Amino acid sequence: MTRQLAEPRATSWREWALAVAGGLALSAVMVMVLRPSAPAQPAAVMAPARSLAAVPQPAAPLAAPAPPALILRGILGSGAILEGADGKQRLVRVGGVAAPGTRLAAVGAGTVELESRGQRITLGFPGVPLAAAGTKPPGANSWRLAMSPLKQGGQMRGFRLDDLSALPMLAAAGLKRGDVLVSANGNALASDEKVGELGDELAANGSIVLVYERAGQMARVTVSQPR
Known about the structure:
The protein is of the alpha+beta class. It contains 5 helices and 13 strands. Helix content is 21%, strand content 32%. The longest helix has 22 residues, at 13-34. The protein is elongated, with a radius of gyration of 51 Å.
């Protein structure tokens, strides 16, 4: 008996499409498997947070020492009358202790020099500018400009002190603005010429004795030549 062979079946277009798609998928898988993998990037290492408290801070500058609480009340030769914070006055000689940690370094004309913690401090009389306390004796005009004539009943009563900034020796002697100078060394101050001569008398004698009136009371004071 003769056996007939089956004729080959024609491939459809759908089968061809499936075969091509399968081939493409297989090729993509082979490429991914065979491609060398990129080296792993090391993870970024974070520096430990630095506490602000651990950061060294620059040292704050030391404050300059405050001047001692002293008030200059008078100058006597090589010493000064200083008033402390307690209101008490005492005579301090040059080189002596004016306050804790402070000594009297020098005495000038209307001012003194204090040394406190290695620093020099200039101390003047209250109400008298330091610039006005020089070493040059004031001239006649300084005396005239510092005072104004005061008359009573048509008679010269004396000269009222209006400005002591140019005459620190008067403030050093305790005179104040508003005081009325009546006489100098026993001679009445009855004219501008007499007032202008006060500087010459002070320079020649080293001191003058003034009689003045304050609040209706008469008093006497000795004014010394500025050093």
